């Protein structure tokens, strides 16, 4: 795992956007896996800026969203598909047919999960999976206890996740208790992974992910198995790493 520590959130966004823009320029029809949450907001903003000001084109890029709530109306603000439109898709030249999302209102969720996995395979697999991390160590909605070999499926959300996501809802009773998410195994099959984390409130989780044992209790720790995984952290998120100085010393790749 390669660890990059940046001074602040803005620098994390620029660094991550540069990696994605380089990939798109090298490989214009690349396949990206995309997360939601507060962490990637500035990163998406930077991609939009590069599209507008630097001609970065998404015209052949294919994207797969990482997860989605079950049962929310399609246009609800907290719906992850609405989030992706608001923060990226509506502002770049992506072909809507290439912006694949999970359907949290599908009549048959099992079929929806299986066809998402099939669509990823048909697209040739994910070239770069971008990730955030929950304070409980989840990636996507793979909550603690998720099988490290899991595929796209329905998960029950933990209390911590419901609390963390409550600000997106006016009425706490509206928050879905279930979500659909790519599995840990699905994520590990991406050719490369890029995880972003910001703030001291993530510092202990980041330490568990990078320096702790690989355990289903911290699903993000499975990323230690990935041969091409980069974590881009701000100073706060990196602040509890035991080998922080070593990572900053810099030439190692994995
Ligand atoms: P956040 O969420 O970016 O809003 O902190 C990350 C996550 O839960 O994966």
Give the topology, please.
Elements (H helix, E strand, L loop, with lengths): L1 E5 L2 H18 L4 E4 L6 H14 L7 E4 L1 E3 L10 H8 L11 E2 L8 H14 L5 E4 L21 E4 L2 H7 L12 E4 L2 H5 L3 E6 L5 H9 L17 E6 H4 L5 H6 L5
Bound molecules: 2-phosphoglycolic acid.
Task: Considering the chains and any ligands shown, give keywords for the structure.
alpha/beta; Rossmann fold; seven-stranded parallel β-sheet; three-stranded antiparallel β-sheet; 10 strands; 33% helix; binds 2-phosphoglycolic acid
Describe this structure in words.
The chain has helices at residues 9-26, 41-54, 80-87, 109-122, 159-165, 184-188, 203-211, 235-238, 244-249; strands at residues 2-6, 31-34, 62-65, 67-69, 99-100, 128-131, 153-156, 178-181, 192-197, 229-234. By secondary structure, it is an alpha/beta fold. It has one domain (2-249): 3-Layer(aba) Sandwich (Rossmann fold), CATH 3.40.50.1360. A seven-stranded parallel beta sheet has the order 1-10-9-6-2-3-5. α1 crosses α2 (41-54). The longest helix has 18 residues, at 9-26. The chain is globular, with a radius of gyration of 17 Å. The model has no long low-confidence stretch (mean pLDDT 96). The structure holds 2-phosphoglycolic acid. 2-phosphoglycolic acid binds at residues 37-39, 132-134.
Order of helices and strands: EHEHEEHEHEEHEHEHEHH
The distinct ligands, each listed once, are: 2-phosphoglycolic acid
If you compute it from the alpha carbons, what radius of gyration comes out, rounded to the nearest whole angstrom?
17 Å
Poorly predicted spans: none
Would you count the extended β strands for me? 10
Number of domains: 1
CATH topology: Rossmann fold
What's the total helix number? 9
Helix content: 25-40%
CA-CA gap between termini:
4 Å
**Neighbour order of strands in the largest sheet:** 1-10-9-6-2-3-5
